[in-house]
Amino acid sequence: MTKSPNSGSINNVKHAVDHSASGLNWRNRTLFHGDNLKFLRAMNSESVDLIATDPPFNKGRDFHATPGSLASGAKFQDRWSWEKDVHEEWVDQITDDHPRLMYVIEASRRVYGDDMGAFLCFMSVRLLEMRRVLKPTGSIYLHCDHTASHYLKTIMDAVFGQKNFRNEVLWLYKTGGTSKRWFARKHDTILFYSKGSEYTFNPQKEKSYLSHKYGFSNVDIFEDEKGAYTLTGMRDYWDIPALRGNQPEAVSYPTQKPIPLYERMIKASSNEGDIVCDPFAGCATTLIAAEKLKRQWVGIDIWENAKDIVLDRLVQEKLIGTGMDRTDLFDEEVYFTANPPVRTDDGDRVAPFLRVKERVKEPDGPKWTRAKMYEYLLDQHGSKCQGCDRTFDDPRYLELDHNTPRSDGGLNHVSNRILLCGPCNRLKSNQFTLSGLRRRNGKLGYMAR
Ligand SMILES: C[S@@+](CC[C@H](N)C(=O)[O-])C[C@H]1O[C@@H](n2cnc3c(N)ncnc32)[C@H](O)[C@@H]1O
Q1: End-to-end alpha-carbon separation of the chain, Å?
Q2: Which of the chain's ends, N or C, has fewer CB atoms near its CB within 10 Å?
């Protein structure tokens, strides 16, 4: 086994990573900065044991950290619009390759509104990648709340398969207000899916800090001197106190979750040395919990200062060297980068990059001529082959083709039309949709660089 360059030499963090055996193309304790889709797409397939993540919930507002706190300046947007946030490439890829998923998105969009459709589209392309990076024995815990949990459940069923649904865990807490118009909302929902039928699961005993006793009938309860009850077995509702601002672990990051909550998921669904990933890492609660439990980890967040919080929290929890200079800590203990890793597996992508067809309504009146469609597509995409991204000075090298072949019921309508160079048109023939062609080109090394 070779030691990873940043496998710690301090305290209990001597995780060595054998890159060749594990299929990893990143180091233990990596924090990627940027949009997680870019990094998830760049991570090797089947390389992660557990994903425990807490994405935006579609709350329709922005979150800001407390000024002057450790996380000061942090903010993230949790409002969604179909026009601004949904890339055509996502819609095309989901429609072409995962039609059942698109039905769910469309249904949610119709029932709830465009914002939910946009949020689910955003989540879907990422969840497809998360599924790909999980090992066959891996699992995912997706943290959400009542705003989107039911819609996300249907998305998760479409991506992971309904038969791989394991639990809808309720995280019970007491913080927040009450209402005179409905029952106080005091739980979040955590959707737990495995990737397949064989998966890591370690049944847990749990501590419950309840001020009064419930009449549990199917579990044994032991009370300790602090009034905590240890329950054998594991229920699907967890009463773990939410963070309060005066607790040492609180860094005033908006939406920060308590470490014990993520410890419970990690203990249940991974073993020491396993690889834990949080693509919406925030102030690194999952990563800290993973480190405490001697797991390897990788986190991603779009917030540029996430790295400082991770480091501060690791030092605060005495998980990495307290005596070391900050720069040395970054060099030797935690790896931070905005560059995606290079794939060392076969590079198959669940969610290919596409910059393709515009969905337009057939205009009233006479049908478009080929020339008009050609002009329209040139105007939309420039003089570029949509199959391999090569640009041509002379647009005559681009041919008008169908995305879904006519033989598969594809329409003549402009929304089903694409411009391809000659070689791409021949390679595509009636075999592929555009996303399939682009994947094929990617594998064959034919994409323009
Ligand atoms: C609900 S918070 C996670 C909180 C985290 N569980 C914790 O305890 O700190 C969601 C996080 O997702 C991040 N985020 C949102 N969109 C993202 C994207 N496309 N790529 C990476 N991170 C993203 C936000 O910056 C935010 O930190």
Answers
A1: 36
A2: C
CA Rg value for the chain: 24
Residues (pLDDT < 70) of the chain are 1-22, 67, 75, 206-233, 322-324, 330-331, 349-365, 407-409
Which CATH number covers residue 50?
Answer: 3.40.50.150
| Among 320, 337, 354, residue at a domain's last position | 337
DSSP alpha helix (H) spans, 43-87: 82-85
The parent domain of residue 418 ranges over: 370-444
- Element (H or E) spanning 188, and its range? strand 187-194
Residues 121 and 25 both lie in one domain:
yes
- Asked if residue 217 is part of any domain, the answer here is no
d(CA 129, ligand 1 centre) in Å: 17
Which of 32, 57, 76 has the most ligand 1 atoms within 8 A of CB, as the residue to mutate? 76
Tell me, yes or no, whether 208 lies in a domain. Answer: no
> Domain boundary at 317, 337, 357, which?
337
> How does pLDDT run across 178-234, given as a tens digit for each residue?
999 999 999 999 999 999 999 999 987 766 555 445 554 444 555 666 666 666 568
In a domain, 342, yes or no: no
CATH number assigned to the domain comprising residue 396? 1.10.30.50
Does the CB atom of residue 255 touch ligand 1 within 6 A?
Answer: yes
Number of domains in the chain: 2
- For the beta carbon of residue 314, count every other beta carbon within 10 angstroms: 24
Which residue of 70, 302, 314 sits with most ligand 1 atoms within 8 Å of its CB, as the best mutation to test the pocket? 302
Ligand 1 binding pocket mutation candidate from 301, 305, 309, 317 (most atoms within 8 A of CB): 301
Query: What is the greatest pairwise CA distance in the chain?
Result: 82
**Which atom of ligand 1 lies nearest, measured to the CA of 122?**
19
Closest CA to 33 of 217, 214, 284: 284
In tens, the pLDDT along 86-107 reads 887 788 778 877 888 999 999 9
Looking at the fold, whether 328 and 390 belong to one and the same domain comes out as: no
- Per the CB < 8 A criterion, the answer to whether 204 and 271 are in contact is no
Same domain, 296 and 382: no
Is 360 inside a domain boundary? no
Per-residue pLDDT at 16: 36
Tokens of 124: 């879907």
Q: For ligand 1, is residue 403 a contact (CB within 6 Å)? A: no
Record the pTM: 0.75
